[in-house]
Structure formats: C-alpha cells, structure tokens
Specification:
Structural class: alpha+beta
Number of helices: 3
Bound molecules: calcium ion
Order of helices and strands: HEEEEEEEEEEEEEEEEEEHH
Strand content: 25-35%
Mean pLDDT: 91
Number of domains: 1
Shape: globular
Helix content: 10-25%
Distance between the termini: 32 Å
CATH topology: Jelly Rolls
CATH architecture: Sandwich
Largest sheet: 8 strands, antiparallel
Number of strands: 18
C-alpha cells in the first residue's frame, strides 16, 4: 500500500512537471534556431514545434557564433521549413516578430527569413539591403495589402548586427530595431491580418523565388506570432533567448500562482 502511494505521488509530480515544462516555452514563439545542433540533412529547430530546417546547398555550422555556434550560409543556400505543412495555429497573422543576429559578408540584398502564401502573397521581408539599410515588411493576402514597409538603419558587413522587426495588428504599429535601437516605425496602412498561410513555402536565408541570398553568418533566429515590445527585443538581444524565456516563464508562473491564490 505504502509503495503504491509513493508511485502515485511520483506519477502526479511527473505529470505536474510535464505541464510546467510545456509552459516554459512561450506559445507565441513559432521558430527558434540557435544553430547548435546540425544533422547531416537538417538544422534542429528549438521552439518545441519541431520545424527543423532541411539544408539546401551549403549551410554549415560555424563556431564563430554570437552565442556558441552559428550557421554559415553560402550564396543561394537555405533552410527549407516545409511551409505548406506548418500548423495554421503557428502562422503569425495578428502580429509577428523576426529577430536574429546576422553577420553578412557584403552589403547586398539578403533575406533573413521568407514565407510566401499559396496565393503568391509575399507576406514578410526581413532583409539586409544592397542600398545600405534594413527592411521590415508584412502583407495581408493579395492584392495590394502591404501593411507596412519600413527601411532604416545602416547595413554593415562583417560585424554582428542584431535585427528585430515587430508588428502588432491590435496596436496597428510596426517597428524596426537595429542593435536594440529603433530605426524605423510605421502605422499599419490597413486593418488586415498578415496573410495566413505559407503555402508556397518558408525558408531561412533565401527568398522563395531564389532571390536575395543570405551570405554570411546567422545566429539566434527567432520568429514570433506577436509583436514583441522594445523591452522584450532588448532582453532577447542582451540576455539571449534562453534567459529571456526563463524570465518570461517565471513571470507566467507568478501570474499562475497569483490566480491560484485569488481563486481560493
Ligand atoms: Ca548559437
């Protein structure tokens, strides 16, 4: 009898810990590549959603990362995220943030991340640009649904730059931060959500139509389905995503305990 009670308690504790573990990762974090884990064919994706990137061309692990290792992209190489099979619940529509450390080999048009809807809508452009700045754009479904198109900052080659584009539909505002500084903002031109499918694909490091090849190093790419605040962008930049998520989770647990207390 005593033995079975111990087992029961252990089972209860395990299931409780399981639910805590599930809470630790922020549910709005859709994609996270720390580039610490490569297999022969894939780069392992760490959000918990399992969207490992299939390596196309020459994407190699480099130990010259901003945090540990990075991915080194040769021109025309990319990670294929199998866009058509991404869970619709994970597709950002009410808000989006794309955050990454990049160290580009030259000042040229380069896509950090790209996704294209089944109807051909280019729904997101987080880019370093050949004309010397950075870009952040979202669109609703075609035709003519550009929500914002921000250009700002000074594109620099051969140094680590922190890129963060954010958009909240509710706040109707988009912001572009470079190295934690706001370099551009735009009020949403339309009330539409972001196009809600990645039917023609989603990639890291190359546009769907094989343009704007990312060339150089990338680290700590994280894609969210909400607009991060300036404070959150800076926390992610300064502390790294693991520490950010830990603080995020502690905040959530505090809220949960608070709720439990009040409900008694
Ligand atoms: Ca890394």
């Amino acid at each position: 009898m005593k033995h079975s009670i111990v087992i029961l308690v252990c089972l209860l504790l395990t299931s409780q810990m399981g639910s805590f573990a599930a809470d630790v990762i922020d549910p709005d974090l859709v994609l996270y590549f720390d580039f610490e884990e490569f297999t022969a064919t894939n780069v392992i994706e760490k959000s918990g959603n399992g969207y490992d990137g299939r390596i196309n061309g020459n994407v190699k692990q480099s130990n010259d990362g901003k945090f540990g290792n990075a991915a080194k992209f040769a021109a025309g190489s990319f990670l294929d995220l199998d866009g058509p099979n991404v869970d619709p619940d994970h597709i950002p529509t009410e808000g989006m943030s794309v955050v990454a450390w990049i160290n580009v080999e030259s000042v040229a048009d380069m896509a950090i991340f790209n996704a294209r809807a089944g109807d051909g809508t280019w729904l997101v452009h987080p880019e370093a640009r050949g004309d010397g700045n950075y870009r952040w754009l979202n669109r609703g479904h075609n035709p003519g649904k550009t929500l914002f198109d921000i250009r700002g900052g000074a594109n620099k080659a051969n140094e680590w730059i922190h890129y963060a584009g954010t958009f909240s539909r509710e706040a109707a505002m988009a912001y572009l931060y470079i190295n934690g500084n706001k370099v551009g903002e735009e009020k949403a031109r339309l009330p539409d959500p972001i196009a809600g499918d990645w039917g023609q694909g989603a990639r890291v490091g190359y546009n769907i139509d094989n343009n704007r090849p990312f060339t150089g190093l990338m680290d700590e790419l994280n894609v969210w389905k909400r607009g991060l605040t300036e404070e959150e962008v800076n926390s992610i930049m300064n502390e790294g995503i693991i520490e950010f998520l830990a603080v995020d989770a502690r905040g959530k647990l505090t809220t949960t305990w608070g709720k439990l207390k009040t409900s008694k």
